[in-house]
Amino acid sequence: MTGAKKLYIKTYGCQMNVYDSERMAEALGGQGYVETDTPDDADMILLNTCHIREKAAEKVYSELGRFKGLKAEKPDLKIGVAGCVAQAEGQEIMRRQPLVDLVVGPQSYHRLPELEAKARGGEKALDTDFPEEDKFDHLKARPKAKRGPTAFLTVQEGCDKFCAFCVVPYTRGAEVSRPVARILDEARDLVERGVREITLLGQNVNAYHGQGPDGADWSLARLIWALDGIDGLERIRFTTSHPNDMTDDLIEAHGTCAKLMPYLHLPVQSGSDRILKRMNRAHTAESYLRLIERIRAARPDILISGDFIVGFPEETDRDFQDTLDLIEAVNYGYAFSFKYSTRPGTPAAERDQVDEAVKSERLYRLQDLLTRQQRAAQEAMVGQEVGVLFEKPGRLQGQMVGKSDHLHAVHVSDSDLRPGDLRRVRITDSTPNALGGRLA
Ligand code: 5AD
Ligand code: SF4
User: Fold this and answer.
1) 341 CB less than 6 Å from ligand 1?
2) Domain total for the chain?
3) Which of the four pLDDT bands, split at 50, 70 and 90, describes residue 249?
4) Which pLDDT score is estimated for 3?
5) Ligand 1 atom 6, closest CA
6) How many angstroms is it from 49 CA to the middle of ligand 1?
7) The CATH number of the domain where 158 resides is what?
8) pTM, two decimal places
9) Percent of the chain that is helix, strand, coil (3-state, to 5)
10) Ligand 2 and 130: CB distance under 6 A
11) Among the three residues 92, 127, 162, which one is the final residue of a domain in this structure?
12) 277 and 309: one domain?
């Protein structure tokens, strides 16, 4: 074979996996790989996997099964599994699906070049350690490739909260924050490459406490203020936050930092104190509602989004009604909701499970309410003037699509618009999944 080797990466799950996939592509770029968007001509296939719910985890095996034909045609093809399924199941993956050559957990991506070489040499390569070194220090970007207007930047990883349903503390490990200087360097580099909006990522991003240049631990708010000083960076977002780490300085930043966008993803999971306790959430419905009030006092137009789980073990109709009541009280602008899924090794897996049909019925009712709130929040934008960062052409001729400050998709037809333009837009209409408008 001549020329570059081809790498196909498929990403499942959360935004951190999207960020990690970019870093893996860069790490393998150093080994002569270029990315391809189809598995058919790949020399290496990497699945960056998600373990959060059973369905997500099982998808990996059906996807792997589909590569059997390709591997038979092309014995040199290497197949790897990365991400949280790799971390959780390790060697078991190769046992269950022998065509897998390489398994690498989320904390070991900087070791990919060695693992790739090992796999090329015909050996099985596995690394699911939690090494001491900072993997990001070893994942150097390729020289100055141009980027789109928005980017993710991981600032914190892992979780020490141990919610009773969640695998994250086991797959991503203990909470670790990256040092401030590294984050600022990476942010400046992104801005030089065309990025105008950065979303700071962490499983518990508002628990961020990275070392500052002064040697002290910096809070997320302090980091945001430092990013605010970067010329050319226009918008800052962060996700995902835990209610108990919503500190005063962070709430205040929502009211005073103009680059910090009026959108906050603040999962509550349930509105029943009984269930919250069993989930080990360490907050109540009431404390969450009070927190939302304080955040809205700082930034009245902020759009709140959340995550919900229905059918957590022992959840009764009364508990579920409490969740609906909380949703009514908060009025969400956006939400993700799930049926509880049993995860091996987590405390809730051992408890009395709720009937699948009951879960389905509750999810249906919950989503109906959330969808109505979401539509109303979107429709309330009609007639308003909002900031929009344009990202790419829309489906119609001359149309551009971007995201509003409140993270709504916005279409505008104007042939002068370019990706990366940040403009004021008068919203004129609302369809189920997007807003339309014209330049103000
Ligand atoms: N079952 C269902 N949903 C889950 N989540 C996490 N673990 C589970 C589980 N076992 C949801 C939570 C979390 C989101 C990322 O996924 O709502 O906030
Ligand atoms: Fe999982 Fe989030 Fe709870 Fe951590 S805080 S255990 S990541 S749901």
Assistant:
1) yes
2) 4
3) very high
4) 73
5) 166
6) 15
7) 3.30.750.210
8) 0.95
9) 40, 25, 40
10) no
11) 127
12) yes
